[in-house]
Amino acid sequence: MPGGKRIQKVGIIANIRKDIALECSSGLKKWLQEQGTEVFLDAEIAAALGEKCGLERQTLAARADLLVVLGGDGAMLRASRSVRKFNIPIVGINLGTFGYLTEVNLNEMYPSLERILRGDYSTEERMMLDMEVVRDGQTSCEYTVLNDVVISRGSLTRIIDMETAVDGSYLTTFRADGLIISTPTGSTAYSLSAGGPIVFPSQNVIIVNPICPHTLTNRPIILPSSITINVKVWSEEEGVNVDLDGQESITLKSGDTLIVRKSRYVTTLVSSSNRDYLEILRSKLGWGRLPAINR
Questions:
Q1: What are the binding positions for NAD(+) in this chain (predicted)?
Q2: Residue spans per domain, the chain
Q3: What's the predicted TM-score (pTM) here?
Q4: What pLDDT, in 10s, does the model give residues 167-202?
């Protein structure tokens, strides 16, 4: 969707584990201030730069018009979850490798931000998922993710049984190494490696993809986002986990039920005017390149 709003206040978040992120954050802050833009630093990056003006992410998101994330997809996933309640536009500057979510490259940072500051940008909303774990009839924890919810057997040697229902109707019991429940954004993450389909991020669907299923007819299935998925986990051994966006993990007990549904929150990404999703796929996946064969 078109943006059009001039940006006057910018928040900066960075992956401080990348050395270049500190240098880029300092340079970006100075450049933004030269443009007459008010700048807020995330508390973590401010401390790393020796500044005392850092803000907690929720406070930063409440004050800023735009969030700039310096890092890779991991930094974008963490940022999206922490500021999800504020619906603030996020632009990612790619300091990582693949960068599906951080579509602005470092050498494009200043020209791209110059256009964005004057209101020359568009945004796209990315669907998120809410997940809760029900244990002994009580909700034990709740999370929101942008990419995926993954049930995995961890270090177990045996496969696990996952009794799956859709809107209360029994679907099947997956006997597999795990189960991926993914958004369209997450379709190019773990789900893709597990043989799942690539889904345009603008689609409102949920992908259910078993990992190495015992029954070969258990294939990925694409479901409408209006449904609720219940997965009851059965295992003779302890050690089954549920991983959230690949960054947080919860240990499950046999008999736990996961409830997954479309979240009321979305992640709003600033989209580049000179790059479409097909170009991103070609670039990140290497499609269309000639094989490097010496003739």
A1: 73-74, 78, 147-148, 158, 175, 177, 188-193, 247
A2: 9-121+273-285, 128-264
A3: 0.92
A4: 999 999 999 999 999 999 999 999 999 999 999 999
